[in-house]
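Hi D.,

Good news: the full-assembly prediction came through. Inputs first.
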Amino acid sequence: MEILRAENLCKIYGTGETEVRAVDGISLSIEKGEFLAIVGASGSGKSTLLHMLGGVDRPTSGKIYMDGQDIYARNDEQMAVFRRRQIGLVYQFYNLIPVLNVVENITLPTRLDGRPVNMERLNELLSVLGLENRKDYLPNQLSGGQQQRVSIGRALMNAPAVVLADEPTGNLDSKKSQEIIELLKMSNRKYSQTMVIITHDEDFALQADRVIEIVDGRIRQQA
Amino acid sequence: MRITNRITLLYLLGNKVRTWATIVGIALVMTMITSVSVGMDSVLSYLRRITIAYSGAYSGVYCDVPPEDVNGLLSNGVITGHTVFETVTSIVYDNDTIDVVNYSPDYSDYVAIDLNAGRMPENSDEITITRYYCYVYDKDIGDKIYFGGREYTITGVADVNAFSGSDYFFTVDADAQGPVTIFFTLDKPEKFYDYLDKGVLKDSYGLQCHDDLIAYEGTRSVNRDTLPMIILEAVPVILIAMAAVSLIGNSFSISIKERIRQIAMIKSEGATGRQINGSIVFEALVLCAMAIPAGAVFGILLVEILILIFGDSVVSISGFELRPELVVNPWAVVFCALFCVGITLLAATFSIRVVSRTSIVEVIRQNDIVKLRRRRLKFAGIFGKIFGYEGVLAAKSYERNRVRYRTIVASLIISIVLFVSAGAFCHYLNSEYNRTAEQYKKYPDIAFTYDCNSSYHQPDWGLFLKIQSIKSITASVFTANATVKPVISPELYSDEYKLMQTEDNAVYCDVVFVQDDIFNHICEDNSISASGYYNAAAPRGLLYDMVQVYATADGGKSYTATDVELFKKYMSDSLIRINGGTLRIGQKIDKLSYGIDNSTQDFLVIYPMSLRDSVASGLGGSIEWFAYNIYIKSDSHSETSSEIKRILKEANDENGSVYDYAEDIQAAHTADIIIKTFAYGFTVMISLIAMVDIFNTISTSVQVRRREFAVLSSVGMSKRSIRKMVNVECLLCGIRSVVPGAVLALLSSVAIYIFMRNFDNENVFYLPIAEICIVLTCVLTVIFASMLYAMSKLKDDNPTEVLDCDNI
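Then the structure:
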């Protein structure tokens, strides 16, 4: 079952001589529960595509449908609600809130939604992420791997429809990278989470259900 | 608590320096606004009390009302109380109406009766008269006076300062049947004219409003009387508001920029615009909750402290034995708090606009470089030549981050202009005080004058001796003055006098008798031998003909007094003809001292006191006026003045009067200090706000640029070079604020000069070089000190750790 579909997406920065077509007419379809890897050189438009899929950056042209609904037909307020409930974002540079501890960072989307925290889900995530003993720690008291796990926990807390991860292992050593990869795969299996991962790690990409290569803002090949 | 608000609170707690800087800034603003409001309320209350002490607490007065009409006038629902002067009889003297009225002690609740001497009447045979009629009738306490076919004994001298068209003599007569004067109070005195317009108060029987009191009823209705006070209150509040918006807006802007990445993250996690905006408003309200109560307390304390310091001085200036009191209107303080909150929220809205325009993606990518536009940089080349490549980087950084420095520059310019303006304003005030002080140098501390009207007679010498032996008097000169009308041909006047004398005023001669020893000193001061001036058979006097002439200046806008020589040419041993006699003159002098002064158009002829009888007998009936004077130097002028008044009261002598010149100069000095305190105090407060703003901006700006400094360090720039770059940036910021600030300050000082000339055209333009140098030094010191402090926090930074650290 298709969960996410992009039609002829374009993202253009600048005008005239300085025009840059970061994404140039990309169309793709993602199935529910699919583990999709996006690869490509730096500056190829991978992150731009990911941000547009996550409702963070509006495309210059084209449409994105989630569950058959155009996600950009919403206004800003509706987009924010959509992001907190339907999308989980994981960044290369963790982007945790420095003043919130582990639990508060993980439960941030739920609390933004004004809903009570599902303690069972939280404890399960903490256990799965190996953070039970770090619940009250602030980000600057955690290692890089631990911070990334918090970031993943935050992305999974609301059980979003799609998890988008932009080079989640880009800032980690190989051992920690492997841990993160396993976590994401586990989440994909256990929670039937649709995953779209940008990665430079070939081994990681090969573990995905499908790999898309982006070159100069276009899909060169899918495998 | 909402998560966004919790994040805000945690940020405030985590950045104590910035948070406290903002709280202090808001508290300063609240302190200033509260002190202006409370100060004005206290001033209004004091003026009201003085007015009541002077003329009474009544709101209005009806005159000459037939007794049967009284109830009709009073029964309108708005008159809360009244008192009635029942007329016993009325007389007209010299076109003025005098009402003899029945006295009741209840009058004091509504009308102030100024009892100058004696006591109020206790029966129908007793009466009080006014000071003026005491003088005109040449009457004293205990004398008899006839009015309306009755004889009264004068028991006191009393005046009513309330305006009602009549003078009042008080007696006791319960059967008074004549028309009455009604002094009444209103429920809302400020609505007097509204009640009149609506017909609630009947416009009849010469109804008069107590305008002086209404003006100080603490209302904010705009009319001719309250407009100057309202302007005096509004101008500082506007200036404070401008400084406040700048400081608080800047603080919020810094706070948001520091947290922009986290705000973008929260937005990407699904926080709505309303949630983000709400957190910014929450931050504003939290800061206000901490700052405003403290600011209110300090503002009230500040006024109380000023009252404690200047209270006695104000009493001496006002002439009333009433000390100013602190008056706090709770609603006014609440209004000030709301005003402060409003300014803070207004400042917060600027930050909200910044946040709403921020793109999540650009922040996450740290793509703020994208926002900069390519443009030619003006200073990079010049600074590069002077300071090397560090100068180039500094100039580029400054030019490309103008928005960040904009508020610093604006705050500094405001501070420079205010400080220099305050300095120029105080200089002109000080000049006026110095001129007054210079003028008063030739005066004694106290001048006692005993008038004998137009008769030459022997006064009570014991009184003069008593006065001269007051303990606090350090030196005194006794003189006797007779004014005579000389017969002088206008051809003898000097050309300068003729030119300035536009009106045909008669010239009189003051014949002054001074103590013999003082006369000898005057001769010595003027290099004249005194020996030839003691011949009783043919007494000769010293001539002093420098007279003071008032002429118009500035096209008729003002009068100035000029000293001119009266006579064109003077021959020794001349005779001056007066009606019924002559005056023989010895030599002319040009130096006067020992309190003897001539600030009139009359010329002086001075004799030793021992020749008084022989000279006066020669003047005979030509004496227009005779007076005795004691010019006093004292080590406590107020004590001496009070003692003289006590001696006069004891002697029951109304002929003596005291003028305390030292009190005048002290009052001028006090007023000068008070105004300077307020002018500089206000400037310092505004500057403090600016300094807090600058410190906040610069220290946070450096913190925000930690990554930039780490990058520079990692590519090989030494710490020394980084410091040099930062110092050049400070210098550039300083120049950009100092140059326009100095220009605006000069223009402001010109405007102040033009303004002050309206009050005193003797003012000469003052170039406030000293003030400009002081404030520029302070400005540069603050900038560099802030930068030094901020840089000291980064000196131990490891570039690699900073570059790796995500949570900057």
